[in-house]
Automatic annotation (TrEMBL):
Reactions the enzyme catalyzes: DNA(n) + a 2'-deoxyribonucleoside 5'-triphosphate = DNA(n+1) + diphosphate
Protein name: DNA-directed DNA polymerase
Residue ranges of domain Exonuclease in the record: 6-173
Alphabetical keyword list: Exonuclease, Hydrolase, Nuclease
Protein origin, superkingdom: Bacteria
Pfam family membership, one: RNase_T
Amino acid sequence: MSLANSVVVLDFETTGLSPNMGDRAIEIGAVKLVNGEVVDTFQQLMNPGFRVSSFIEGYTGITNVMLRDAPSCDEVMAQFAQFIAGENLVAHNASFDKRFLDDELERVNAAYSGEFACSLLVSRRLNQDAPSHKLGDLVRFKQIDNDGVFHRALADAEMTAKLWMLMVNDLQSRGISAPSFALMQKIGKTSKSAIDKLLSSQGA
């Protein structure tokens, strides 16, 4: 059984919203958790092969000057495929990051064997009193230590990892001693009205 506290938490910064529209990754950040502890990190800018818009420069703080000498997406993603080999993956709004991960890895004929869980969906079920489930809002709501940097990949991955472990620990406090990764996935797909029943069935 894969435990929820041993995962890779990742975040992409990109040139836009969809690889289907020609958008590419410009930064990847990731945190590797083993038994809830950070054992490794990965962070790299990558040159998408074209200039990014002024909006994206402003939104991420990643400028065309910074990207000019960065390695190519293909080079970085080949390295990242090794970093995530055999690991389950977590991202905040995972469908977005999964689209880019799948697209970028396909370009370098690489793949991954783990599954994805979405910390945003899990948070909607476990933090139902939060005013919003945007990462920055949850960091403030949960009073998670942060350096005030958002929309940079490693900083966001680190914040997501802290949020993820808060939710894992929340389940442990409810009597689920070793939450599995599969349980976290199931929580994200369960309706709000059915969540208490699901957790009580797990020994909570």
